[in-house]
Every structure is written in structure tokens, then in C-alpha cells.
Amino acid sequence: MKAAVFEKTGERLVVRDVAAPELGDNELLLKVAFTGICGSDLHAAETPGVLRPGTIMGHEFTGEVAQSTSPDWPVGTRVAANPYWLCDACAAGGSCRSGGDAACANGSFMGFRPDLPGAYADYVRIRAAQAIRLPDDVGLREGALMEPLAVARHAVDVSGPMQGANVLVIGGGPIGLGVVLMALDAGAARVVVSEPDPNRRACALDIGAVAVIDPIAEDLPAALDRLGIGEPGIVFECVGAPGFLQKTIDVLALRGRAVIVGVCMTEDKVLPRAAIRKEATLKFVLGYTMADFHHVSRYLADHAATAAAMISRVVSLSELPEIFDRLRAEKSMIKVLVTPNRQPDT
């Protein structure tokens, strides 16, 4: 089968022939339909020492069961998947016994190790316990958004009660836009997005944000005052770059709640006194649980068309190396999907 393979930091992915996965007990071989390019993949590929040569990335995917060693998942079933690979001690039970789920250090995410290949390929192997059956009215294309939406759902769930709240989302990438959808689904009254890219701001409005702010053109607190929001009671930081943790604290309301979703890969500085003065609550989140995936599956059954506004482009597997390199610097595209053995579209 064909796969896009990471060979070396700083070099382009290589599409080449690799051996098809072999199944163990209670496992599924999926014919890949769509795979999302994630910012985590981009960061991993450009950070020395994160990936080993021979790694096949891609952890946001849908597909059809091509082979199965599980009686519950017949050939032809359309599925998405939770890409978190449980450790061997917990695999038989189908869930993390420590309750850590994606935060447990004993498991791994597919697509970041050569021995756990992801879905930048024609086929991908998963355990049956990772599979989520797609609702009949959710397409394989829209279903590929399930993983990033599960990240967003987990962040919203961890944040606490949302009903009637004014919410600020800092960063309008796929995760930030997913938080918009999940916050509205949880009952938020008004969601505002701060994002410098005009295409992403437009998408935020399309999916339900009440307003957007260009933080390059306008001071964020001043813009919130202009909109009649003031200091928001709930803020989601979805950028993951130095300085944004302090910006989140600075804009937060007295006794407000901040959820840190963006993954900053370097050291950062904060002024603890600023958070102490507000008696702020800061929560840091990672990944998701299977409950988050099932929640998103139900959400997509009713709102797949709305979520699909995040999909900027679909490319073929042969085009993946070139578009992967472009996405390192080009922020105007939101979610790019890869589909093997099909003609790309724009």
C-alpha cells in the first residue's frame, strides 16, 4: 500500500510503498477515506527528536472496515476512531484503568511512532475498542472532523457549567473553531473569537460566533468593551504560543475560568499575581475520552453541515507532502483533509 512517510526533520514527507498492517485479535483494518492534517503533525515533523524515521502520521481519520477480527464490526462498516492506543495492560478492558485516558503516560497516540502508524496511508489498523460507528447521515468527509471536535468537547466539558455564559476563544484554528461549536452546544450565550487571519474570522462567524476580533488591529480588552462583553467569565486559549497564557489571564473576569487548550512547546512567563488578584481558575487539558467522541458523534448527526465549514480543502495522498509543507507557514486554510486513491478537489 501507499503511505506518506516521515524520514527526517526538515525534509519533505515521502509517499512510497509500505507493508499493509497485519491484524491481531479484536482489531480492524480500515480502508482510509479521509485524514485531517493536524497542527500536532506539523509541530512534530519540524521539531528535532520528536519523530523517528519511518513514522506514518495521521490521527484524525475515517474509513470503512476492510478486514475485521471482531464479531462486532463487520466489513463495510463506516467508522471514525479514537487514535489513543492504550497500553497492553489496559487494552483488554478497552479503557484506561487509571482513569487518565489520553493523559496517561503508558499509552500513545497513533501516528507518532513507527510501530503505531497513522492514516496518511491507504489502510490503517485500529483496535475494535477505538472505533466509533458513524451515524447514517454523517459522511466520511465530515466524520474526519470527529477527533479535533472531541478535543474541543473535552475542553468545554472540563471548563464547567457553560449555560448563558459569555465566552472568549483566543485562536481560530480548527481547535478554536471546534470550541465555538462545542461551547454553543453546551449552552453558551455569546461566543467571541480573537483571530488575526480573516478567513478564520469569517469561518467563526459562519459557525455561530457572535463577533470576531482582529487582535493585530485592535486591543483585545477594548474590543470586548466595544462589543458589550467586557471581561469574559470563560476564556479558552487555543493558540499555544509564548505570551498567550498571560494574555488569557489579563483579559479574564474576576473569578473567571480559563482553559488552556493550545500546547506551548517552549518555556513561557506568567505573572502569578495577575491570576491571584482575580482568583482565577486555570485548567490545562489534553486529548479526550471515548465519551467525548460519542458526544461529538451525536452532535454531528444534527450539525455535520455546520462543522464542515471548517474544511478548507481536500487533497490526494500524492499531494500531501507539498500541502504539508505549505501549512507550516500558511494559516489561511483551516482544516485540510487527505484522501487516498481519489481525485483531489479544491
Describe this structure in words.
The chain is of the alpha/beta class and 346 residues long. The protein folds into 2 domains: 2-147 and 288-339, Medium-chain alcohol dehydrogenases, catalytic domain (Quinone Oxidoreductase, Chain A, domain 1), CATH 3.90.180.10; 149-284, Rossmann fold, CATH 3.40.50. The protein has helices at residues 39-46, 88-91, 140-143, 146-159, 174-185, 198-206, 220-226, 244-251, 272-277, 290-307, 320-327, and strands spanning 2-5, 14-17, 27-36, 60-68, 78-81, 84-85, 108-109, 123-127, 131-133, 166-170, 190-194, 211-213, 234-237, 257-260, 281-284, 311-316, 335-339. Strands 3, 4, 5, 8, 9, 16 and 17 form a 7-stranded mixed β-sheet that branches. The longest helix is centred in the C-terminal third of the chain and has 18 residues, at 290-307. It is globular, with a radius of gyration of 20 Å. The two termini are 25 Å apart.
Number of helices: 11
| CATH fold name of the largest domain | Quinone Oxidoreductase, Chain A, domain 1
Shape: globular
Number of strand elements: 17
Count of separate structural domains: 2
- Helix-residue proportion: 25-40%
CATH class group of the largest domain: Alpha Beta
Distance between the termini: 25 Å
Q: By CATH's scheme, which homologous superfamily of the largest domain applies?
A: Medium-chain alcohol dehydrogenases, catalytic domain
CATH architecture of the largest domain: Alpha-Beta Complex
Which regions are unreliable across 5 or more consecutive residues at pLDDT < 50? none
| Range of strand content | 15-25%
- On the 0 to 100 scale, the average pLDDT is 94
**Biggest beta sheet summary:** 7 strands, mixed
Give the SSE string. Answer: EEEHEEEHEEEHHEHEHEHEHEHEHEHE
